[in-house]
Design brief:
By secondary structure, this protein is of the alpha+beta class. About 13% of the residues have low confidence. It folds into three domains: 105 residues, no CATH class; 126 residues, Jelly Rolls (Sandwich); 71 residues, 3-Layer(bab) Sandwich (Phage tail protein beta-alpha-beta fold). A hairpin with a 5-residue loop joins β2 and β3. The chain contains nine helices and 18 strands.
Length: 327
């Protein structure tokens, strides 16, 4: 079902949608999921609105009252203009830019409450750039190692984190055995003290690999799943795919490497694109080509040379686009 632009624009100003989008309230998430299940049109509109919101890159900063008042006044002026019919028809691209501007203005005027947990003290948001990995220690002593192109959000007074991208976590145990919760767009992971990898990429790859301890996986639309060490659960097209693994493929990124075992080239291309922020175009003739091996992953040029030499296909690079051809 197709989305409708006017409805999507309304969603960008809907507090319930924003609460669901940022995954900060379990009841808000559940309520919105139920609405989408009952209304296919809302699901389509939501998917379009998510694409718009994903274009926003907001950083933490204090907002003084004068600037906040100015933003609110400007926001109300835009609404008044829209309601009076003074907004002319625009192309889809220009409309998309208008959505982003309106959404950014709303977020600013509202004090960015859904990005900053209200006004919770000690709020932190950490990003890694393309090609960068980073290790951070959380306030409770837990360790999070972030893969490239990943965002981690947390507060000082809570054992809850929100992750978009990929991260390996070593959760510290507490005397009172307090639970530690990881939230992603597609699932939550509840633990007490353990080591595991969380994957939630924009290209649709999602999964949890448990190295040590025990965790409870709560995927949207599924009952809780108790995981055991060595298990790798992927979320694919709404289904859970469980298998046993030694962790080499899932954890190679911690050592700045990529591990492929009969991985089809389009998936390899998606991983490279997510890690380095480039476009990777694969010639259709190579779609069923499988890649195996361990490759260095801390320099794109070296990775390209190694793949080209070892796998027998040709790679051409034009600025930020990689073209893969059959030799």
């Amino acid at each position: 079902m197709e989305y409708q632009e006017s409805r999507v624009e309304a969603l960008l100003l809907d507090e319930q949608f924003l609460a669901w989008y940022k995954r900060m309230d379990a009841s808000a998430i559940a309520d919105w999921e139920k609405k989408m299940e009952a209304d296919p049109a809302l699901r389509a509109d939501t998917a379009a609105a998510v694409k718009v919101m994903d274009q926003l890159l907001l950083t933490e900063k204090a907002i003084d009252q004068d600037h906040k008042a100015q933003a609110i006044a400007a926001f109300r002026a835009q609404l008044s203009q829209a309601q009076s019919g003074q907004v002319v028809q625009m192309s889809r691209w220009r409309t998309m830019r208008k959505w982003v501007a309106v959404a950014a203005l709303f977020v600013f005027a509202a004090g960015i409450w859904w990005w900053q947990f209200g006004s919770a003290p000690g709020y932190k948001e950490i990003f890694t750039q393309f090609g960068e990995t980073r290790q951070v220690q959380l306030p409770d002593g837990s360790i999070a190692m972030l893969n490239a192109n990943t965002k981690l959000r947390y507060t000082d007074g809570s054992r809850e984190v929100w992750i978009k991208g990929e991260a390996f976590l070593e959760v510290a145990k507490t005397v009172d055995k307090a639970k530690f919760t990881v939230h992603t767009d597609g699932y939550d992971v509840v633990v007490h003290g353990t080591r595991f990898n969380v994957l939630d990429r924009g290209d649709g790859r999602q999964g949890v690999m448990l190295e040590e301890g025990a965790v409870e996986l709560k995927a949207r639309g599924h009952g809780p799943v108790q995981m055991q060490p060595g298990e790798w659960i992927q979320l694919r097209n709404g289904k859970l795919d469980k298998s046993m693994t030694d962790g080499k493929a899932q954890l190679a990124w911690k050592d700045h490497k990529l591990f492929f075992e009969k991985t089809l080239l389009p998936e390899v291309a998606a991983i490279i694109a997510e890690h380095y922020g480039v476009q990777v175009q694969v010639e259709p003739a190579l779609d069923q080509t499988a890649v195996s091996g361990i490759f260095p992953n801390d320099n794109l040029d070296i990775l390209v040379q190694t793949l080209e030499t070892a796998q027998g296909f040709r790679i051409e690079r034009t600025k930020n686009i990689l073209h893969l051809y059959k030799k």
